[in-house]
Specification:
Layout (H helix, E strand, L loop, with lengths): L12 E3 L2 E3 L4 E5 L6 E6 L3 H18 L4 H17 L1 H12 L3 H21 L6 E4 L5 E9 L2 E5 L7 H12 L3 E5 L6 H13 L6 E3 L4 H10 L3 E7 L2 H13 L3 E5 L4 E5 L5 H13 L9 E7 L3 H12 L20 H16 L3 E4 L3 E2 L9 E2 L2 E4 L16 E7 L2 H9 L3 E2 L1 E5 L3 H10 L4 E4 L15 E2 L11 H5 L1 E9 L13
Parallel strand pairs: 7-8, 7-10, 8-9, 10-11, 12-13, 12-20, 13-18, 17-18, 20-21
Antiparallel strand pairs: 1-2, 3-4, 5-6, 6-23, 14-17, 15-16, 19-22
């Protein structure tokens, strides 16, 4: 087994290709056992400004590097990530807690993103179109925005970072990255890989610190022209408001209240598998996690019985152990938040079928573990059916028809992911049309997005932009329309057309 050596090492910011020490640090804890694994800088606005100045200078040169050459470096980044996949995966589990199987999947997502965006370096397509005037050529091209800022969460510390940084870099931008304080090791490792792959100094810069300090400084900095943020709805709204004041482009992804719909003709065994994976994978700490199950009343009893049976087989513990299926919660404040929602669910009349408590016996050391939890007899407007809990808590809601299931699914403020289990092709096509989420799964859970398609949602989930896929390029580029008139005379569009 690959061994990972950790301790109370002090990390450094990565600015202009150099590791820069800080004066203030904060400990980072392993959520599986409470041990300090590293200390992370608590940077200030001046550190952001320093990084931006270098990034701004580097961007002028980086934008002149032919996109296929930028793509070659991106391909090398992907190759190095692939070579070090196991080490990266184990470090990810160490700081994040997710089980090693899921960590390997997340690292693979970053690898896939590197190779995908490397391919875009030979495309970055614009458009050519006929001009309405004689002897005139018309086209559109993508241009880099300049310096971009990315603010990423702890629950997918490398996947989300690659969704944002890789398209930005291939498109000719430079990046200021504020990783989550809870998961700094992935940022350090990715910076190391980028440096080894030959990425020019100043193209990727990592500035650790609190959102209230580093994040605010990034949002307010006049030379950062794009902010791409993934996190809570409250923080996202604040980011959007400030970016609007600065006329700065902003891309937001802010969570979900995702549902699996189980119709009366569904394959119940398959539905149970999908629910377990999407509800309790990453201990429910995914923006795409299933937190509601909307089931036809004729199958409710059967579904509950099978879910309870399978939930008993979910092993809980340190994610570095291959047999573990449910890892720890990220920190104590997250545990307390989950507990509050459990009590709210009981008070509002939901029936607790399983779980609902923290594991605290000696075998779990000082880790943050919460038992997978199942509520039933939940009504659509209950708090636990409306608000994002971000933990292993699922609410079962009974409905009488397909139409009611769609209505209940859409009756939340978020719109990220939804799922339906049915064998009826008519319902499949009606569901993919009527479910008001950015992602729709058929006969699968609510998780499992692939990097070549857009990722994001509607309503309170975001502001219309998307991570991943070709859509990510729209966040980090500006469209430029170019007209070449070779008639030798002044021709006026819409006027000299006859």
């Amino acid at each position: 087994m690959l061994q990972i050596s950790v301790g109370e090492e002090k990390l450094s910011n990565y600015i202009n290709g150099k590791w820069v020490t800080s004066t203030q640090y904060k400990p980072v804890f392993n959520p599986a056992n409470g041990e300090v694994i590293v200390k992370v800088p608590q940077s200030k606005a001046k550190d952001v400004d320093r990084a931006v100045q270098y990034a701004k200078e580097a961007q002028r040169e980086w934008a002149l590097v032919p996109a296929p050459q930028r793509a070659e470096i991106m391909f090398r980044i992907g190759a190095l990530m692939k070579e070090r996949k196991e080490k990266l995966s184990r470090l990810l589990t160490l700081e994040n807690g997710k089980v090693i199987e899921e960590a390997r999947g997340e690292v693979q997502e970053g690898i896939d993103m590197a190779f995908y965006m490397a391919g875009e370096g030979r495309r970055l397509f614009g458009q050519t179109t006929p001009s309405e005037l004689k002897d005139k050529f018309a086209m559109s091209v993508r241009s880099p925005v300049g310096v971009v800022g990315i603010i990423t969460p702890w629950n997918f510390p490398i996947a989300i970072a690659t969704w944002k940084s890789f398209p930005a870099i291939v498109a000719g931008n430079t990046v200021i990255w504020k990783p989550a304080t809870e998961t700094p090791l992935m940022a350090r490792e990715l910076a190391r890989i980028c440096d080894e792959a030959g990425l020019s100094k100043g193209v990727l810069n990592v500035v650790y610190g609190a959102g209230s300090e580093v994040g605010e400084a990034m949002v307010d900095h006049e030379d950062i022209r794009v902010i791409s943020f993934t996190g809570s709805n409250d923080v996202g709204r604040n980011v959007a408001s400030k970016c609007g004041q600065h006329l700065k482009k902003v891309s937001l992804e802010m969570g979900g209240k995702n549902a699996v719909i189980v119709m009366d003709d569904a394959n119940i065994n398959l539905a149970v598998e999908g629910i377990l994976w999407s509800a309790f994978g990453t201990s429910g700490q995914r923006c795409t996690a299933c937190s509601r199950v909307i089931v036809h009343q004729d199958r409710k009893a059967q579904l509950e019985e099978q879910l309870l049976k399978e939930m008993e087989n979910l092993s809980i513990g340190n994610g570095l152990e291959e047999s573990i299926k449910v890892g720890p919660i990220i920190n104590r404040s997250a545990i307390e938040k989950i507990k509050r929602y459990i009590e709210i669910g009981k008070q509002e009349g939901a029936t607790l079928l399983a779980g609902g408590y923290e594991l605290k016996d000696r075998s779990y050391e000082e880790g943050n573990y919460f038992v997978p939890t199942l509520f039933t007899n939940v009504t659509p407007n209950m708090t636990i059916a409306q608000e994002e809990i971000f933990g292993p808590v699922v609410s079962i809601i009974s409905v009488e028809s397909f139409e009611e299931a769609i209505e209940v699914n859409n009756n939340v403020s978020y719109g990220l992911s939804s799922s339906i289990f049915t064998k009826d092709v008519n319902q499949v096509f009606a569901a993919q049309r009527d479910l008001d989420t950015g992602i729709v799964y058929v006969n699968a859970g609510t998780t499992g997005a692939e990097i070549h398609l857009p990722f994001g949602g509607t309503k309170g989930t975001g502001n219309g932009h998307r991570d991943s896929g070709l859509a990510a390029l729209d966040v980090f580029t500006e469209w430029k329309s170019v007209y070449v008139d070779y008639s030798g005379k002044l021709q006026r569009a819409q006027i000299d057309t006859e």
